[in-house]
Design brief:
It is a single chain. The chain is an alpha/beta fold. 31% of the residues lie in helices and 23% in strands. It folds into two domains: 300 residues, Spore Coat Polysaccharide Biosynthesis Protein SpsA, Chain A (Alpha-Beta Complex), CATH 3.90.550.10; 98 residues, no CATH class. A five-stranded mixed β-barrel has the order 6-9-7-8-10, surrounded by four helices. Helix 2 links the parallel strand 2 and strand 3. Helix 3 packs across helix 7, helix 7 crosses helix 10 and helix 8 runs antiparallel to helix 9. The longest helix is centred in the first third of the chain and has 16 residues.
């Protein structure tokens, strides 16, 4: 991997759908949901073969910065930045782009959420390497797409060309190869072409539209993982967010000086509160296929964003990965209605499809199905897997009631 690749990890979310385990000062990305390591520790470790520790940047918030610094001891704590206020993904990754454009004009940025599960990390790194090569070759944007397995309404969708074509980088690097059918770049070991032109992005469709997308066959879930050069992203923000871009540039210019904290605190709240999808990807894709320079690499690795307790249940009940070092009861992964119980000891009778988290206690589940039960020292959550997406509403209510100790 070239030494100009910089992972930028966005870690400012609260993970409210994982309440009561996830709190403001110990959010989802700091929890060991998949292994004995936290989600953000896993994120960094899978990227370390691609970049040196000094090339990592983390954008988070004041509540989480110190816990993240403690967990990520290999990284330069000066490059773990806390937003003064949350302003969504466009200003967060945009700040990274302007900082790196100044530091390394040839910088290629990988934008990564801090809380995803990747099943095949070697395949993941190969996909990111291909994406970085395409991003470095010109003003290209590369998104990692996930083949949908259901009509999910909680994800954004990427529509791609029906007939994949090689990027300019791939054409240049394949002149010595025999062309394949329809002008596609021959692929290693019979794999699909590594990049597909993107037609458009659609944010979180309704159920009917999601069904249409899945049936069409040329739609992918938007994983939230993007690769682009710092210059490409900075220029896109200058074009599409002309009010916010100068603010980010001024903040970046002050980095490393005594004025940085004050400038950051003063200007960042003035940035627009908008996602990079709405700010950059949608308007750029509107330029039309072939002119937008946006490409999708279909992921060749297993992926789960663990977006809710139900998603964690599905992952835990089917995963063959090592468990956390506590006693976990789960029926075999090939058995319908597996129970996932994280407890000291457990007993089940006529119970199926339950997720129960009660560390240090004996748990008995009798005659119950599809429940989510999560206990902490000061709170108890009881819901169903079907309604686990609504757990964030509990946190909203607690915020409104100013019950700060519970959030």
């Amino acid at each position: 991997m070239a030494n100009n690749f910089y992972p930028v990890i966005l870690a400012g979310g609260r993970g409210t759908r994982f309440w009561p385990l996830s709190r403001k000062r110990r959010a989802k990305q700091l929890l060991p949901l998949n292994s004995s390591k936290s989600m953000i520790q896993e994120t960094v470790e899978r990227l370390l073969p691609l970049a040196k520790p000094k090339q990592f940047w983390v954008i988070t918030n004041d509540d989480l910065r110190q816990p993240i610094v403690r967990q990520l001891k290999k990284l330069d704590k000066k490059q773990i930045l806390a937003e003064p206020v949350g302003r969504n993904t466009a200003p967060a990754i945009g700040l990274g782009a302007f900082l790196l454009e100044r530091r390394d004009p040839g910088a290629v940025i990988g934008m990564f959420p801090s809380d995803h599960v990747i099943a095949d990390e070697k395949a993941f790194r190969e996909d990111i390497r291909r994406a970085a090569q395409i991003a470095a070759a010109g003003p290209n944007i590369v998104v990692i797409g996930i083949k949908p397995t259901r009509a999910e309404t909680g994800y954004g969708y990427i529509e791609v060309s029906d007939e994949p074509r090689a990027t300019s980088h791939e054409r240049d690097s394949s002149k010595s190869q025999e062309p394949s059918a329809k002008g596609q770049l021959p692929s290693a070991k019979g794999q699909a072409p590594s990049a597909v032109p993107v037609r458009r992005f659609t944010e979180k469709p309704n159920a009917e539209l999601a069904e249409q997308f899945v049936r069409a066959g040329n739609f992918f879930w938007n994983s939230g993982m993007f690769v682009w050069s710092a210059k490409t992203l900075a220029d896109a923000l200058r074009e599409h967010l002309p009010k916010t871009a100068p603010l980010l540039e001024e903040i970046a210019a002050s980095y490393g000086t005594r004025k940085f904290e004050k400038t950051f605190a003063k200007l960042y709240p003035k940035c627009e509160n908008i996602s990079v999808d709405y700010a950059v990807l949608e308007p750029r894709s509107a330029k039309g296929e072939g002119r937008s320079g946006i490409y999708c690499i279909p992921a060749s690795f297993g992926w789960n964003d663990l977006g809710s307790w139900a998603a964690l249940y599905e992952h835990r009940s089917s995963s063959s990965q090592p468990r956390r070092p506590r006693r976990t009861s789960a029926t075999p992964s090939n058995t319908a209605g597996a129970n996932v119980i994280l407890a000291a000891e457990s007993f089940t009778l006529n119970a199926e499809g339950n997720f129960i988290h009660s560390t240090g206690k004996f748990v008995a589940a009798v005659g119950v199905s599809n429940l989510v039960v999560v206990e902490t020292d000061d709170a108890l959550l009881i819901t169903t897997r079907e309604h686990s997406q609504d757990v964030g509403k509990v946190v909203k209510w607690l915020d409104e009631k100013k019950l700060k100790k519970l959030v």
